[in-house]
Design goal:
Elements lengths: L2 E2 L10 H17 L21 H6 L6 E5 L2 E6 L6 H20 L7 E6 L1 H7 L12 H25 L6 E6 L3 H6 L16 H17 L3 E6 L6 H6 L4 E5 L5 H12 L3 E7 L9 H15 L9 E5 L8 H18 L2
Parallel strand pairs: 1-9, 4-5, 5-6, 6-7, 7-8, 8-9
Antiparallel strand pairs: 2-3
Length: about 350
Amino acid sequence: MTLATGVGSHPGEDQAAYDEALRVVLGELGERGEGSGLPYLPEVPGRGATASMTGRALAVVDGLDADLQPAGWRLTGSSGAPGMDHRRARSLLGQDLDALEEQAQGYRGPFKVQLAGPWTLAATVERPRGDRILADHGARRELAQALAEGVRAHVADLRRRLPEVERLVVQVDEPVLPAVLSGAVPTASGFHRHRSVDRPEVSQALEWVLAAVAESGAEPWVHGCAAGTPWALVRGAGAVGLSVDLGTVDAADHDALAEALEAGDAVALGVLPGAGSAVTPAGPVAERVLRWLEMLGLDPGTAPGLVVAPACGFAGVTPAFARDALLALRGAAERLRV
């Protein structure tokens, strides 16, 4: 049963842009999706740092406070007194969820939300004394556990707001994961690189967050748009959904994705370019998916977890492009279900 979805981000710079993105997502993938859509909570990072992927995740983190510095987000400790920007991030998320609750009343289909993962946060947020959390083993552990606890409360809040949704997906975004594993994340000075993190530690932090999602009754997915994302490790950490840009995968990735589909897990295949002068029509999008499945020896009928998606988010495109892209993806999903 092929579905269509988006990565998460949408264009715009104000609350009106968010409200419109939410209407489009719910309309094209929900109300008019006729069972072929997986609508999601849109992100509009153009509204500022409090609406960015990092700000959104810090709004969920439990027990740690943060503030904004010229270099970006920085943890300030666990005083229970978050800074003004941290309070704004939490307020904005609550405001966005209020709008979702209002617009999605009575919605019964599947629904997805997105959240930056522990390693992307560790590579983008600073410690209280400076430099990235990635530089400190203890801080990395504390952040991952705080994110896991926050996820539990976040899912419970979503369940309260969307009581009729039976299938809830939490997509953990880890675009920086390959750089963390390869030691390619720059230090604050930019002159050096942080040491690579061992795979067992990477897996454990993911396990804490993905287990929190699963134990809360939602499906844990992981999204990675960078080449070198270790999909086998991600599945081993507990992900039952993999969201990938097809243009970045290699031979080993194909095997991991095929194994996931054969096991009944979800694979959100990024097959529609997320930018350009025109949106690729539904027909060519569906053909690209069929060619990929044929290469693996599969077909849509034997891959119930197949999802079609854009290769990346829509933050850098026009609202019209984002809407037309969702229409094309929905059309491709309908073709693949025939």
